[in-house]
């Protein structure tokens, strides 16, 4: 039996931020990061809350949030006892908030209304039942319907300040979500429709926002595409591109979207080498008005080049060859056990993943 669900109510479009003024709240906790707090973006958002609401801010989130910062957030939330929690930031802030609420809930906290406001057009975390937390050198994907926010507010003006490099990384994450959802062994007509729409927007609008961060119509479409891709993958699942990126990111701390972008052509070629697993790429290409899977792969490689993304992991300069070889077996093991691997279209062995890592490292 197949299922499709969307828990979060979506608020989007020009006046979406006014939803904040209608929230019934007296005690609000905002979970965010230091940059968003210090740049004034948090107060730009909280000014829309009802005037009587008391606002507390937890701004210790860092990229690839650790279990320790989640635990500190759990401690804080019991002190604040909010009736509304707002995750404000990129995937790291939204995931940290999900995990804080999840673990606090296990300790008896009554569930407050949970609203996610993304400030990157990337993870789709505002609508997914995923949260990725780093424990030691390992990124752990939590998957539970209880993690999904109650509401998601999309206002592209919050993404205007994202610099080109992070625009590229997060935008390529959207592409990877949509493509992995499309070829997933749990894909359905419903998730395919969403994935194709997200892919169309990414191919058209990601180069625009990369070259001109003030292109607000394109920023708006990317914010919606990110959310649309999130709805696709929270229902269809992801695949080994994400499994490989999680294990690498836990060890070497490179931006999640950049790792996905570098890995993607290698993962596509691995699947396309067998006609059975090439088929969904051919189908996806045709839905996008491209000739076939090879043509889709060319479009991905061209987009990556236009965004200045490296061809190989070695070109990042931050992953030492010796350290990579030392850890490649452990990373493959972690990727094999990742929660994204069971929905990959092609069954994989540990050796397949070692080979993919080495291909992506050396080119
Ligand atoms: N839960 C999910 O469904 C899901 C899906 C994919 C990835 N993830 C996880 O999400 C995390 C990545 O999230 P991300 O790619 O959004 O990046 P991020 O949240 O880690 O943020 C990256 C950087 O961008 C900055 N930033 C955010 N908004 C900005 C803005 N408006 N202007 C300027 N700078 C801004 C942040 O301060 C930070 O320095 C990873 O941990 C990844 O594993 C989660
Ligand atoms: Zn991702």
UniProtKB/TrEMBL annotation:
CDD domains cross-referenced by the UniProt entry: PDD
This protein's record includes keyword DNA repair: no
Gene Ontology molecular-function annotations: alcohol dehydrogenase (NAD+) activity; metal ion binding
Top-level lineage group: Bacteria
Record carries keyword DNA damage: no
A Pfam entry, by short name: ADH_Fe_C
Residues annotated as signal peptide: none
This protein's UniProt keywords: NAD, Oxidoreductase
Domain Alcohol dehydrogenase iron-type/glycerol dehydrogenase GldA: 9-155
Protein name stated in the entry: Alcohol dehydrogenase, class IV
Organism: Parafannyhessea umbonata
């Amino acid at each position: 039996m197949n299922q499709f669900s969307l828990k979060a109510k979506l608020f989007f479009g020009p006046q979406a931020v006014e939803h904040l003024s209608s929230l019934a709240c007296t005690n609000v906790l905002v979970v965010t990061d230091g940059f968003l707090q210090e740049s004034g973006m948090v107060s730009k958002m909280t000014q829309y809350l009802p005037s009587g609401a008391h606002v507390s801010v937890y701004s210790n989130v860092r990229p690839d949030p650790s279990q320790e910062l989640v635990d500190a957030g759990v401690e804080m939330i019991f002190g604040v006892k909010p009736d509304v929690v707002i995750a404000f930031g990129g995937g790291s802030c939204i995931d940290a908030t999900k995990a804080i609420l999840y673990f606090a809930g296990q300790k008896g906290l009554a569930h407050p209304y949970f609203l996610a406001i993304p400030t990157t057009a990337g993870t789709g975390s505002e609508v997914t039942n995923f949260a990725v937390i780093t424990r030691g050198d390992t990124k752990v994907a939590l998957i539970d319907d209880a993690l999904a926010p109650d509401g998601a507010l999309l206002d592209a003006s919050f993404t205007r300040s994202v610099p080109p490099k992070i625009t590229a990384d997060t935008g390529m994450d959207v592409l990877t979500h949509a493509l992995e959802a499309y070829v997933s062994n749990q894909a359905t007509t419903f998730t395919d429709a969403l994935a194709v729409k997200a892919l169309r927007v990414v191919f058209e609008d990601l180069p625009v926002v990369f070259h001109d961060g003030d292109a607000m119509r394109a920023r708006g479409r990317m914010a919606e595409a990110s959310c649309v891709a999130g709805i696709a993958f929270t229902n269809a699942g992801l695949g080994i591109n994400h499994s490989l990126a999680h294990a690498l990111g836990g060890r070497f701390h490179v931006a999640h979207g950049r790792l996905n972008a570098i890995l993607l052509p290698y993962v596509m070629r691995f699947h396309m080498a067998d006609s059975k697993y090439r088929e969904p790429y051919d189908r996806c290409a045709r839905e996008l008005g491209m000739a076939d899977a090879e043509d889709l792969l060319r479009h991905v490689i061209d987009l990556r080049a236009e965004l200045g993304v490296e061809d190989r992991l070695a070109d990042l300069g931050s992953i030492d060859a010796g350290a990579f070889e030392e850890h490649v077996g452990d990373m493959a093991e972690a990727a094999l056990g990742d929660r994204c691997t069971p929905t990959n279209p092609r069954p994989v062995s540990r050796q397949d993943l070692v080979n993919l890592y080495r291909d992506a490292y050396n080119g």
